[in-house]
Design brief:
Helices cover 26% and strands 42% of the residues. By secondary structure, the protein is an alpha+beta fold. It has a domain at 16-32 and 46-75. Strands 1, 2, 3 and 4 form a four-stranded mixed beta sheet that branches. The protein binds zinc ion (ZN). Zinc ion binds next to loops.
């Protein structure tokens, strides 16, 4: 797909990092599959992956965890 941010770069399959803030908690999720722009490195994530990360963050905040670095490959089925 064509990058929405720079409008000139094309994206390719890759991995990226998401920083998620949720009710005062901050989580960093590494190795998240994404479409990454070859030019500006902007990353695009599928709604399925975003939902999975949101669910996981909700679980963690429910346990009282306020910060964590998560390897997506370990939580993905
Ligand atoms: Zn771009």
């Amino acid at each position: 797909m064509l990058c929405i941010t720079c409008k000139t770069g094309k994206t390719k399959k890759g991995k990226s990092v998401i920083t998620l803030q949720k009710s005062g908690a901050i989580f960093v999720i590494k190795n998240v599959p994404a479409q990454v722009c070859r030019q500006c490195r902007e990353a695009y994530f599928s709604s399925e992956i975003t939902a999975k990360i949101q669910d996981f963050a909700t679980k963690l905040t429910g346990l009282g965890i306020e910060t964590a670095v998560i390897n997506f490959e370990k939580i993905a089925d």
